[in-house]
Amino acid sequence: MSSLPGTLGELRIGAYAESVLASRSVKDELRANLIRKLKSGETLFPGIVGFDDTVVPQIVIAVLSRHNFILLGLRGQAKTRLVRLLATLLDPWIPYVAGCEIHDNPYAPICRACRETIAEKGDATPVAWLSPEDRYIEKLATPDVTIADMIGDIDPIKAARGGRNISDELTVHYGLLPRAHRGIFAVNELPDLAPRIQVGLFNIMQEGDVQIKGYPVRLPLDLLLVFTANPEDYTARGKIITPLKDRIGSEIRTHYPATLEHGIAITAREAWLDRAVAAEASGPAVRLPDYIAEIVEQIAFGARDDKRVDKRSGVSQRLPISVTENVVSNAERRALANGEDLAVPRVLDIHAALPAITGKIELEYEGELKGADAVARDLIRAAVGKVFNRYFEGVNMQAVVQWFDLGGSLKLNEDADSAGMVRQLSSIQGLMEKTRAVGLTSNEPDAVRASAGEFILEGLHALRRIGRSAEQGFAAGEVKRPAPEPDESPKARQRRQFN
Questions:
Q1: Domain residues for 228?
Q2: What does the alpha-carbon distance between residue 336 and residue 57 come to, in Å, rounded to a whole number?
Q3: Do residues 368 and 311 make contact, with C-beta atoms less than 8 angstroms apart?
């Protein structure tokens, strides 16, 4: 910063020549920097997974076309993150007239105050500098947003203090749009913006200017406008009015991860798993088994396909992120209670994370009848079964199943210490040797072995090869729902069926 010019005169003789800065718009700047990144093979949007062949090419086309655009997608599809990453395509620094509320270009000022300052001081006009973060402004659309918030209003107090006429341009208090001049202005959840406010965006999108409070104040703003929204068919809160939609250059659809691997990568990046760096009091080390990460991600994939879950609302990628964090925290709690140095999540910990699932799904009528907890448990069981099949396809589990068929039963305590659980699991013939299918060796810590052994039992239960009850724990066969008593009323029977 200290090496950058501090006055208009210094600016003229430096690298920021008038021939470049006076004519290049924000959209031209974004386009030029994007072309440079494409030629060099740089990653355009770091941290975005699964959009390389779908969403990112469409954003590239929109920027190259100098379009204002909208990202349409369900909740939790990284729309806001993508929009914020557009700032990485801006120049590292650009100059503006120091003290200007709308960051005017020193070579082409649009506000009267800056024009008067430059006319008075000339080359001595102070110049300040903007970083890309300073040039990105974001607004969450809500029904109470006003035109004054977005564009601006006349400020009577400013007029009185300056002794100016109320219609003088210097009495204007600028809104968010003028303050985003020479940058990126993003509006999240556009349909929530009242239609009359959406109308207020017409001029800036088509003619590139705004008018304030009916007075002849014309500000030809230089902006990239980007919006996000749920698809119109999927929201009952509002809609994008047709004339505004017509003025948006490109409509780009986002989506949830297409593969389990993409989902796992996103969750691993976003979930808080590196606990060691955050605590004043050191906790146990955390080791998250691959199969637990896969089960958690499979829950989200299963929920998106489940007919009991509202497809219009969607199932956010925040679900597996929150569940993973809860699963790890429950493993930490158990390790701390047992004085262990290593916390390894088990399938039981996923059941303990039930609130992170029920709070992230909206249910259809059939799901509401069954109840959110019951639907979530069904999703967990189905996910465990699918992941179990991937790891143990072709592995003969007959000896383990036979142990239960011969009368064996095993009730596992969620809070049991690792060594104790391994002893319990080792009592089942052939069980622990099957853990090699998930990559375990004989010298693994007890916490890792306990998690893998419990995963096998949960998988067999999910596939209905062994049963489980509150009284016995894991046992032979599938536990059936008890038949109704002869004198049970129809209403009581219905309540029991859906509980």
A1: 8-253
A2: 47
A3: no
